[in-house]
Structure formats: structure tokens, C-alpha cells
Amino acid sequence: MPDTAPEGLEGLAYGGDYNPEQWPEDVWAEDVRLMREAGVTLVSIGIFSWALIEPEPGRYDFGRLDRIVALLHENGIRIDLGTPTVAPPAWFYRAHPEALPVSREGMRYAFGSRGAICHSSTAYRTAAAAVTEQLVRRYGSHPALALWHVHNEYGVPVSACYCENCAAHFRRWLTATYGNVEGVNEAWGTAFWGQHYGSVEEIEPPRATPTVCNPAHLLDYARFADATMRENFVRERDILHRLSPGIPVTTNFMTALSQCDSVDYWAWGREVDLVTNDHYLITDGRRTHVNLAMTADLTRSVAGGAPWLLLEHSTSGVSWQPRNPAKAPGQMARNSLAHVARGSDGAMFFQWRQSRRGAEKFHSSMLPHAGTDSRVWREVVRLGADLDSLAPVRGTRTVADAAMLWDWQSWWAQRLEWRPSEDHDARERADSFYEALYDRHLTLDFAHPEADLSAYPLVVVPALYLASEATGRNLRTYVENGGTLVVSYFSGIVDEHDAVHPGAYPGVLRDVLGLTVEEFSPLGEGERVRITAADGSELTGDVWSEFVVPRGAETVWTYADGLAAGQPAITRHRLGRGTAWYISTRLTPAALDTVLGAATEDAGLTPRTDLPRDVEVVRRSGESGEYVFVVNHTGTDTKVPLPGHGTELLTGERAAGRLALPGGAVRVVRLDS
After folding, report:
1. Is residue 2's pLDDT more than 60?
2. Could you say which of 33, 482, 597, 651 would form a disulfide bridge with 577 (CB–CB 3.0 to 4.6 Å)?
């Protein structure tokens, strides 16, 4: 079995996507010289090179790639070698136009972008396997090879295809999943609206319909599309494992909830040797560093807590948002090291040299259009030196304080049509709960709803509409054994087929929460509700309210107005040795902080009142020692208390008691053993 770390790297990975095919060969020597100056240790190559490797069917030309690989190896730079299967050549689509995906509305996409693939296409699968095998036979034992990189960002920009090939493949998937058409009819509830099927052959993909499509049909098609992409990854991975033993295989994820929402990364995390991730700041006015932390925590959790690798982010602005601001001086390093704090064993970028042509020519790079006499280049060189100083951190694990439950399939189900309120957004709830706990300086793991939660004193559930019976049992056991649970509204409602659990809401969570919900009462646009406690304190909610009936739970806050006036709004249920909280409305940030403050007290988590807002303190621990990362996202100098004495790795200075932290800076203290 391959190792889970890039082969041959002794320190942290540093570098990025290298696309020398975009440049004359006389530029390559300069590239490599500057890579060495910047401290680059790893580059990703070949990801979009299928048309150059196989210029016509069955004829392979590795001359250019041979020269690139040799040049990198001569200069001590390790290689993350891509299988180029995200971008089949024009000749392939001319021969196999059916391999281009079809939209739900029936439009077949054209060649000329990237990722335009019907993953059910036999022709695509055959051609992808062939080019992968040729590539691994040539480079599988090359001494510069550190990592295999399959495809690129599965699910971006197309995950689901609705063509006839996919229809046939979907029927096979349904038969394998349910056994026969009776199983499909039962799972999908086809008795409703007369949607009963007499045979599996009658079932089509959920193409555009005049009104709402069967939600269970849509949900299963999302699962099918994800599984089909994963089948293709596994096919390539197995070729690489067989012919290049000992070299880990990855594909770059996009776990940021705003950037790729069609992939179940819990399932994908089990298939890769090393979890890698691409992350780009969404500059929509929110605190971008909070989303960065959330994405890094989620990626680490997909990796099972093990070190992972940031395979792409940007040195400065990107090119595909409505507005693409530059990063502030120092922000690139701060972003990079914040990922390292939360488990990444390096910092990689898209891309090395900024493109002159193509769709991403305004996307920032390590070597910008402005060249080496530029702020970005100077920061790139400085970051390389900093990462070299942090080599001892490699292989250690980030230490978490609490956990948040998240499930991509539940998210898919929750976004289907005809839900009680379009104002309720599962991702917004996850963001809000995460930000509230981030501001309490807690480091979070994410966990699948059926995972072992016994290590966490606090578990929060911001949005878990779809929850299995096993999830209900798991959360009850967690609380009975002493855990503190916080559940937000519209959780536990349906099973894996989007069927409402029998009985009152919240379905499988009734017992652990000690209550039932008789009815949802979503609020009108802009409408708010007041919530009061016995001591006179008042909170505010919007979007949602419910008619809650305690059945063992105590009422902590009560609706003061609205249709549910006088009814419980927030409850607390003591069960076994633990406690379960329920929040039946969308609280304002200040109100949510109040409730989570009470829950963290139940969990025995000590508040970090000694830390300023937007200053992160995150720990990594392992055989090489204990490391404290302190990241200052403010422009103000501050002092941060340390849990002991140690050496600051970026400056070499001794640190004891309180660590001086300049505005915008990062410090990493290796504690004395």
C-alpha cells in the first residue's frame, strides 16, 4: 500500500501547478532557477496535457514531458504528475461526440472549456485508462515522482450528465442498489402523483419536468453522478497502484461548501491515499479567513484527522468572481500558514507562472506578469523560507476541541424543491455555527453523523435534514455517555430516501432532544420573533419558528410573539450523563453566541477570553513535538498567552509566557518537551 505522504519530501510541500507547455522551452531553465530561489519543493505537471501526450488516437509523444521531468529532477524538485483525463483532446470528441455531457434541459455541451465529460461514456473510460497506463509505464518508477494526481477537481464544472448513456448506466445502478423495480418504487414513493414504474427500463434521468420532480429520484441521481465520477477515479487509481507501487495517488478536492457541492467527500476521502484540496477565497464581503479555517478543518476531517495537502490556492486575486481583489500585503503567507495550522503539510498554488493566454490569464501566480521585481514575488520567496523553517511540523496532527456534524447527501436533499421556506439555507447555518465557535477560539473537527463522537465534549448539528435511524441512535448514545449536543431546527426530518420519518418531527432526534415538533411555522420575509427567558433576557430569531412540545426537555427560552407565542423556543434535555440542546429558530449571531456559550459550559469547555477576536490559536501535535500556531488576522499588534515555553520557528526567538504578535503576522512556537 502506498504511503500517504508525497514520496521523497522531507519537509513541507511548496510550489504549484507548472504548465511549461504554455511557454517556449528557453523559458523553462529560468523557471527552474527561480523555483530554486523561491524554495519550491514540489510542482504539479501534466494535468491538461492529453492533447500533447496523445496528439492523435494511439500515437503517444512524451518528448516534451521527458525534458520537463528531467529538468525538474536535475534541480531537486519533486513531481506531482497528473493524469490528463480532465481535458480530452479535440480529436477524441470529434470521434466520440456522445462523450460530451448533456444538461438536464437536453442541451449537449461543446468542446472548448474543461471538464466537459460524460462519465458514463465507455469511449471516455477506455481512452482515459489507456493514456493513464501509457503515462505510468513511462514515469511510474522515475526517481522524481512524488505523487500521482488523477484528473482535476471532479465535479467542476459538470458532475451530472443526462444523456442516453447515463440513462442506461443509471438503470444499472438502480438495479444494483435496489435489486428490482419494486425496490425503486418503494424507495421513491412512486405511488404519489402516479409515478409508479412497471420496469426499470421505464426510468429516465430526472430531466426537466413541467413542475417539481420526484425528490427521491433527484437525490438518487445526485448519488449516481457522484458514484460514477468516483468509479472513474478508482479505475485510474488502480492502474497507478498496480504499475507504480509505493507512490500515493490523489485527486484535488474542493471541500469549500461554496465551490463544489456535487461531491460526497466522505466517500471520496476513503478512496485517495492522500487527501488534497483546492481553496480560493470568496470575496463577498464576509470574513474570508473564517471560511478558510472552516474549509481546512473540513478537509482535515475528510482525511480522518491525518495531515493533508493544500494543492491549490492563489497568491493574490483570482479571475472568475464578479470582482477579484488582490490580497493585502502579507495575506498570502497568512492564508498559507493558516492552512498549515489546520493540518496541511504544505502550501501549493495555481499556478507557477502567470499565463499570457486563456481564460485564467488574470489569475494570480507565484511568478506574476510583473516578474521578480514585484511584491508578490518577494512574498513568494519569503514564504518558501518560512515553510522550510516549519519542516518539523510535517506529519503532526491538528488538535480539535469540538465537532460539527456535516453530511453532503443531507445537504443535497435539503436543497431540493418545495421545502417549508426558501430562506432556510443549510450552508448558511453551517457557516453561522462555525463562525460562532471560531469566535470562541474553538478548533472544530467535522464528522459524519454516524461516526464515533466519543472524543468530543461538544457536538453541534447546524443542518441535518436527512438523518438515518443509525444517526439517531448514535447521537442518543453520545449524549447518554456524557456528551453535549446542540441541534438546530429542520434536522432529523427524513430518511435516506427523503421520506419523512414516521411520527412527529424531528424524527430520529425526538428521543435525544426530549421533545416533539407538531408543526413548522416559517416566518415571512423580514419577520422576526422575540424569545425570552425566565430571567428577563431576550434573544431574536428570524426565518423559522416551530410549535415545540417538551417530552422530558426543559424550556430555557420561550417565544414572546409570533404564532408560537408562549411556546418553547430553545430547550435543554438532560439524558444519561449528557445534555442535548434544541434551537427551533434561526438566531441572530449574538443570540446564537449566547446559547452556544451555555452549551460550552455544559461541555466543560473553558472560554478563551484572553484572546482577541480574529486571532487564531491552533495546535498541532505529534512525535516531533507540540506546536502552537498563532495567526493574527487583524492589523493590530497583540500579545497572546502561551501554554508553556518554547522556540518560535519563524524567527528563532525564545517564547515564554506571552507571545508578541505583530498585526497581520503568524508565529509558530515549538513547545519545550
Report:
1. no
2. 482
